[in-house]
Amino acid sequence: MNDPHVRVSVVHERDQTDSNVIMAAQKNGSRRKRWHPEEIKAAVRMKGTTLSKLATDNDQHDSVCRAALIRPCAVGERIISSFLNVSLHELWPDRYAPDGRRLSLRHVRDEDTAGRAEPQRQFAGAR
């Protein structure tokens, strides 16, 4: 029962099942709530560049696209969306409406910030 070869095949079989479920969900359009920042970084890297290079290629400061992964940054979000050919709403449904309009983030609270006095996401300059 403790044969390592059996264990490896079981893990491989489970990974294959998970991959099939993810692929089926993507085909049906039932993707998770938003792309994880690491998924965005990986997608950019798979297309042969980095977030910093992507920003500088678009005449922006090298941190603009990296900033978009951790806080609202309209310029960086649009650069990433355009480069990946993925709608803003699909990447950040909590920041953009399906028609591409920017959502007001002033009073949005995450489950993680429910106990904090101040909302985590705000427009730049909002207090």
Structure description:
The model is unreliable at about 5-30 (pLDDT under 50). The protein starts with a helix and ends in a 36-residue tail after the last helix. It has one domain (about 30-125): lambda repressor-like DNA-binding domains (434 Repressor (Amino-terminal Domain), Orthogonal Bundle). The chain has helices at about 5-25, 35-45, 50-55, 65-70, 75-85, 90. It has about 130 residues and is mainly α. The chain is built from 6 helices and no strands. It is globular.
CATH architecture: Orthogonal Bundle
**Rough outline:** globular
Mean pLDDT: 74
Report the sheet-strand fraction. Answer: under 5%
Discrete helix count: 6
User: What's the N-to-C terminus distance?
Assistant: 61 Å
Radius of gyration from the alpha-carbon trace, in angstroms: 19 Å
Briefly note the structural class of the backbone.
Answer: mainly alpha
Helix percent reads 40-55%
How many domains make up the coordinates? Answer: 1
CATH fourth-tier homologous superfamily: lambda repressor-like DNA-binding domains
Task: Note the topology.
Blueprint: H1 4-27, H2 37-46, H3 51-57, H4 64-70, H5 74-84, H6 88-91
Helix pairs in contact: 4-5
Brief summary of the model shown:
This protein is an all-alpha fold. The protein contains 6 helices and no strands.
List keywords for this structure.
mainly alpha, 434 Repressor (Amino-terminal Domain), 0% strand
